[in-house]
Amino acid sequence: HTSLPVIVQSDSAEALSSLASKGLEHSAYGHLVHEIKELMCNREFYSQKIHHSQNRVADRLANYSRTECTTAVWLTS
Fold first, then answer.
1. How far apart are CA 21 and CA 32, in angstroms?
2. What is the pLDDT of residues 25-76, one digit of tens each?
3. Which residues make Cβ contacts (< 8 Å) with residue 13, sequence separation at least 6?
4. Helices (H), 26-75
5. Nearest in space to 17 (alpha carbons), one of 49, 51, 41
6. What is the DSSP letter of 41?
7. What is the pTM of this model?
């Protein structure tokens, strides 16, 4: 494990707000927000709101995953 801070960049102000809030998340994705918060509980958290055009790679990967029926795995040495 590491003690380095978690830096999350997103073009979604709502997602960043959900991660930064201390309260419970009651949206359809509340269980995911809760799990992410548990994983970050012992680390500093910084959020950065970026413009949608700066998030192009993540957007394309998300769209690709919705249309492809394959699983891709990146392996590092």
1. 14
2. 788 888 988 998 888 888 888 989 988 888 788 888 888 888 877 776 777 7
3. 49
4. 30-40, 56-67
5. 49
6. T
7. 0.61
pLDDT of the residue at 49:
92
Query: Residue 41 corresponds to which amino acid?
Result: C
The DSSP code for 67 is H
Each domain of the chain, given as residue ranges in start order, spans 6-62
Across 7-29, average pLDDT: 86
Among candidates 70, 43, 50, which has minimal Cα distance to 10?
50
Tell me the CA distances in angstroms from 62 to 2, 25, 38, 47, 59, one per residue in order: 27, 23, 24, 20, 5
